[in-house]
Design goal:
Order of helices and strands: HHHHH
Distance between the termini: 84 Å
Radius of gyration: 24 Å
Largest sheet: none
Shape: elongated
Helix content: over 70%
Number of strands: 0
Length: about 120
């Protein structure tokens, strides 16, 4: 009986090991996902660098700023994936932008936030 269990355990182990091979389609999907994530991170870093340059933000607050910007961009991308047919598309987009502006005001302070807004959309 012990020999039979031992043989079954070896067979199960070899089958699970054999299934760990990565197919070409999985490798391609992984490569595409990595490229999309890298492009997203570069976009976020560019936006954060521009905001820091304009507002002269303290180094201590850079990670929080990056998190706020990344969350906004991620939510907008998710909403855009759903498309204009998404339920209350414009309302949800406005909610995302309003939340972003509130968080930015809290992080930057009123004067730096106004400076940022005026430099982004000068009149």
């Amino acid at each position: 009986m012990k020999k039979l269990l031992f043989i079954v355990a070896i067979l199960a182990g070899s089958l699970s090991f054999a299934q760990q091979e990565i197919s070409n389609s999985q490798q391609e999907l992984s490569k595409n996902t990595s490229a999309r994530v890298q492009a997203f991170n570069e976009k976020i870093d560019t936006k954060v660098a521009a905001i820091v340059e304009i507002t002269k933000l303290d180094k201590k607050k850079h990670s929080e700023l990056k998190e706020i910007v990344a969350t906004k961009e991620m939510l907008l991308i998710r909403l855009d994936r759903e498309g204009n047919e998404a339920q209350d598309y414009q309302g949800r987009r406005n909610d995302i932008m309003n939340n972003y502006q509130e968080l930015m005001k809290k992080l930057l302070g009123e004067s730096k936030f106004n400076l940022l807004q005026s430099s982004i959309s000068p009149k």
